[in-house]
Amino acid sequence: MIRKEEVFKIGVINKPHGIKGEVSLTFTDDIFDRVDCDYLVLMMDGILVPFFIEEYRFRSDDVVLMKFEGIDTAEKARMLTNVQVFFPKKYMEEQDEITSWNFFVGFKVDDVRHGDLGIVTDVDDTTLNVLFVIEKEGEELLLPAHEEFIVGVDRHNRILTVDIPEGLLD
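The structure assignment produced for this chain is given below.
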């Protein structure tokens, strides 16, 4: 069984494309094209289910036409409409280089001066500046996701150590 903390969201399926089971997928992260993994995880009725990729082709900068194994008709593809799509974190952890800010979802954030800031619950990339959404004791903190602030990454213990400039947390 795939658990929510083992994956991170990369997009949503819009609608079927054509009659052979292809779907249009709007993505926020093209990690599936950069990291070797032969499946994506879809949220089906509250359960995370792996779907193996047969083939895909980019339609635009944020839309890909995706064909999954076993989905070979428009009717089957229609069942995937508005389904959230996730990528397994374990394939990112095998990479030496971190290629997506989403990798840090679920990490505890420690600042060198202020201590525990909370857990990264989401990454907001809707603006020019990418932000970590950090939650601690029901409160939300938005922190710029900049390499210059990161002083350490403990992948095993899932801890992100940062050095936030004075005044940014006020």
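Interim note for the steering committee: The two ends are 41 Å apart (CA to CA). The helical segments are 31-34, 74-78, 89-93.
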